[in-house]
User: Which sequence fits this backbone?
């Protein structure tokens, strides 16, 4: 699978209920994006053992986004990022959701995972002569919701089995 077939969308409404999300594709201005799973492990070793045992306790996925402030087709996403950087929201005002989508088959609906998240501003600025670069982190909150995402109308549908 090529990188352009793994897409991430962020809800720019900051709607805590996820009732009316407005998802936008994270893409233009971003040259690299990885979703870190941030596994929490616990290793124990008893006195009668030569080697320890690792237990996987949980995951807290997060995405660091380094986005250049360049002319983009999606001006709403750029304005949202700039507003987050300028206002530095905290608490419930810094929560939204993102969706990871795997583009497979004919579409326009594909397998996806939706996750509530907290938006953290890490930095803004850049080198002389370059574009302004804003860096934010979408830190996962709780369990992901399995479902599908329609890339044409930007809607997430929860799986019936969840």
Assistant:
């Amino acid at each position: 699978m090529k990188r352009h077939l793994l897409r991430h969308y962020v809800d720019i409404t900051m709607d805590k209920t996820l009732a009316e999300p407005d998802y936008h594709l994270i893409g233009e201005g971003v040259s690299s994006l990885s979703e870190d799973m941030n596994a929490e492990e616990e290793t124990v070793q008893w006195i009668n053992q030569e080697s320890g045992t690792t237990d996987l306790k949980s995951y807290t996925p997060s995405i660091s986004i380094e986005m250049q402030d360049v002319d983009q087709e999606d001006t709403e996403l750029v304005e949202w990022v700039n507003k987050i950087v300028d206002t530095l929201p905290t608490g419930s005002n810094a929560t939204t959701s993102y969706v990871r989508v795997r583009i497979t088959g004919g579409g326009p609906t594909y397998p996806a995972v939706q996750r509530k998240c907290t938006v953290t501003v890490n930095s803004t600025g850049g080198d002389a002569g370059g574009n302004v670069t804003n860096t934010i982190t979408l830190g996962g909150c709780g369990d992901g919701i399995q479902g599908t995402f329609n890339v044409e109308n930007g809607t997430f549908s929860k799986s019936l089995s969840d």
Notes: The mean pLDDT is 93.
